[in-house]
Amino acid sequence: LKDTRKLGEEAIRVALRMAKGESIADMTKGATVNNGFMDVPSVLLDAQVVDQENIDAVLIDSGYLKREEVYTEK
Questions:
Q1: Cys staple from 33: which of 8, 42, 50, 64, with CB 3.0 to 4.6 Å?
Q2: What is the per-residue pLDDT across 19-32, written as a single tens digit (0 to 9) for each?
Q3: Looking at the DSSP assignment, which residues form a beta bridge with residue 39?
Q4: CA angle 9-57-64, nearest 5°?
């Protein structure tokens, strides 16, 4: 899982620095992603493994999803 709330927060931080003409090199830590044309400096966030041991804490207790969105009847 990559929490889209955290991705959004980081995207805003990067965009604000770029809008001010500031470098983001310290934020990317040298990471790049190739978009098919060039290597684009990138801020990469760690993914979190979600399993049956931590599903409630990671998805529900964090407010990312509601219990009824995770546990639905088929």
A1: 42
A2: 999 999 899 999 99
A3: 34
A4: 40
